[in-house]
Amino acid sequence: MKRLLVIDDAGEDIVFGQPQILDEEIEEVVACLRSGWIGTGPRVQRFERDFAEFKGVQRAVAVGSCSAGLHLSLGAAGVEPGDEVITSALTFCSTVNSIIHAGGRPVLADIDRSTMNLDPQAVAARITSRTRALVPVHFAGRPCAMDSLLELARRHGLRVIEDCAHAIEAEYRGRGAGTIGDYGCFSFYATKNLTTGEGGMVLAQRPQDLDNIRILATHGLSKDAWSRFQASYHKHYYATHVGYKYNMMDLQAAIGIHQLRRLAENRRRRTEIWSCYQDAFQDLPVELPAAPEADTKHAYHLYTLLIDEARAGIARDEFLDAMKNLGIGVGVHYLSIAEHPIYQELFGWKAEDWPAACRVGRQTVSLPLSPKLTGAQVERVIRGVRGLFAST
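The structure corresponding to this sequence follows.
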């Protein structure tokens, strides 16, 4: 049996998911402020062009969050009240909330225990005559088994909306995450591989879908504010749809432009840290992340340990508290969706009905994986984790 060993390790707290913000972003934000235009404008347009080029597509639409992108994409996919949308039982609540906001009914499918992504066989078992769409979640940056999911979608006439919140750099058999299904939605939240503080991006296979998504993201107006102010002041605009306030600001894009340029460099650093953890923890009584699948590219967004109390001698929540006491930030990604009271109330879900997701949700711990981490901080995380498993 193991016990928690308190380690006296001096140093500032290590913040989980702390973004790397350099002078380039700061100077661009200052230039944006001085320009007098901080809303949706030329920097958003530039960021969209750069992102589309990075993903190898013609166009992209910047939005206020990945949640906004999912909501708009589900609408573009034709999801209506009463339609069922299948997604992962292990995801952030945003995925399920977006389905509900779009008028759909979320249907959970269990995960593959090794990849923590949707199990295609579990998806197949959940498809009914009311199923309209699939929302695969590329968990932790590992691409889903898209060939199997696309085959199910083709066979049943379903639309596929990829939740790429963790997976901006991920690739599956040579295709970038977000370009494989009908739609791809990305997150630029503060902890993500590319951050704008808050923000997101949408890709779509059909140009008309992107046109509609852009209009819906700005109140349903025929022209955004930047376009209106570039024209003479008497130029009218019209509301053509009942839209939303889902647009991105130039202040956010000012950060994203330079984050995007360093994406490959930052992924190399996260890969190094991920590998250091794999080597350092292989002899501990915990379950490490599976190696990336052949012919895929992992985005290395999260590094997750699974802590089974019976095997490790330490409860997951006890481990979380001990790491916090050491000044090392950790996260839980995620409790399974069916653990949350609101969904139990709305849909009568019980976590045990999705056993793989339930088990992962109750055992998972995410360790710091930011490219901002120094070598000394990585060593401190390793010492902290190993120290907590030291024998009595």
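Residues 263-281 form the longest helix (19 residues).
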